[in-house]
Write a structure and sequence with these properties.
single chain; about 220 residues; alpha+beta; Jelly Rolls; Arc Repressor Mutant, subunit A; 2 domains; four-stranded antiparallel beta sheet; 11 strands; globular
């Protein structure tokens, strides 16, 4: 698999050209990270634009009360860089590996020298910004739901949007899921248990199967 193969917006030919030219210029470095290893902190530069090759990355924050929250997550093909972290004075923000992950870093200065403000560099940056915006809006919509059941259903609906089969994998653990939803894990597991009893979902580890009406309109739970 090439460095840019999973990046949306690039044709196979563009991905190959970009990788070939940057490799010649020494503009690509690949690193591996273990689970819970910090990839990027605010104010740091990891070496350019990161492209996740495999694994999972979490954008986490710790507020002044020491509470951990997951603000965003990145799957294979997603991009991030130092400007991905909010520039806020309160709280701590960092990108961390949610599981063993492999990341390719692209030197933006060398890419700028090769492509300037146009062409493939513009496509790459445009994809990164649009993807981040889409994920942020999705997360806001999920957190804006009134009940825990509605939050779960909104999240499941968004995950099923690509598969469209009613069967999909959670991108992370149940503990991470609770932190992403801003919910207590025990309360979330109880709500999932009720949804299973009502025949709405089947849950096996990270595997979720939607079995009927999601009940998203039901605000009496959670």
């Amino acid at each position: 698999m090439g460095v840019f193969d999973g990046v949306k917006g690039l044709s196979p030919k563009q991905a190959q050209t970009l990788e070939r030219n940057l490799e010649k210029a020494g503009g690509i470095s690949v690193r591996e990270y273990g689970r819970r290893e910090v990839v990027l902190r605010r104010g740091e530069d990891p070496g350019g634009i990161g492209i996740l090759q495999n694994g999972l990355l979490l954008l986490e924050s710790v507020n002044l009360d020491g509470q951990r929250r997951i603000m965003d997550y990145y799957g294979p093909g997603d991009l991030f860089w130092k400007r991905s972290l909010p520039d806020l004075e309160k709280g701590v923000y960092y990108v961390i590996a949610g599981m063993k992950s492999r990341i390719a870093f692209v030197d933006d200065q060398k890419m700028s020298a090769a492509y300037g403000a146009h062409g493939l560099r513009a496509v790459l940056l445009d994809h990164m910004l649009k993807s981040a915006q889409e994920r942020a809006l999705m997360h806001i919509d999920i957190l804006g739901q009134r009940s825990l059941r509605q939050k779960l259903n909104a999240f499941f609906t968004s995950l099923n949007r690509e598969q469209k089969t009613g069967v999909f994998l959670l991108p992370f653990s149940m503990t991470d899921c609770a932190d992403y939803l801003g919910a207590d894990r025990s309360a979330m597991m109880r709500e999932l248990g009720r949804m299973k009893t009502e025949g709405l979902v089947k849950v096996q580890g990270r595997r979720i199967e939607l079995c009927g009406k999601t009940g998203q309109e039901d605000g009496n739970h959670g």
